[in-house]
Amino acid sequence: PKKIVYFSMDHPRVTKTSILDILDEFRKIQGLSFEDNIYAFIDEVHLHENFEQELKAIYDMGNVKVFASGSSSIFLIEKGLYPHELLTDLSPYHHASQSRGGDGGTFLCS
Fold first, then answer.
1. Burial 44-62 (b: 16+ CB within 10 A, else e)
2. Which pLDDT score is estimated for 20?
3. Strand pairing of 106-109 and 86-89?
């Protein structure tokens, strides 16, 4: 658990914060060095401005395994997040977004 972090980009406290800054702060709080591998679970990543550039930078660093999800998979696909990432559609996974017209969700792994 010391190397695992979860956060949702639809939370008001993180919508304006860089994903990289969140991960840096997590490392400080947990007493981890930059060389330590960590696992980041990021929900609703598509709501964060410039998320695609930040995920690419995190992927290139190689010390963070990212599992990113979003309820708007068409947006993620349009941003061209693959081939670096594994894109999996979770349909027919049912959650609240489907009742509001959502598409069921997308899961990205780096």
1. bbbbbeebbebbeebeeee
2. 93
3. antiparallel
Task: State pLDDT tens for residues 47-106.
Answer: 888 888 888 888 888 799 988 887 765 555 565 554 444 444 544 444 443 333 344 444
Q: What are phi and psi of 101, to 5 degrees?
A: 95, 10
User: At 15, which amino acid appears?
Assistant: T
Q: Which residue has the tokens 């609240």?
A: 96
Strands 38-43 and 64-70: parallel
40 Cβ partners below 8 Å, 6+ apart?
5, 6, 7, 23, 26, 58, 64, 65, 66, 67
Cα distance between residue 12 and residue 104, in whole Å: 23
- State the Cα–Cα distance between residues 27 and 94, nearest whole angstrom: 33
Check: pTM over 0.90? Answer yes or no.
Answer: no
Q: Which two tokens stand for residue 62?
A: 């190689």
What is the amino acid identity at position 11?
H
**Length of the chain (residues):** 110
How remote is the C-alpha of 85 from its chain's centroid? Answer: 11
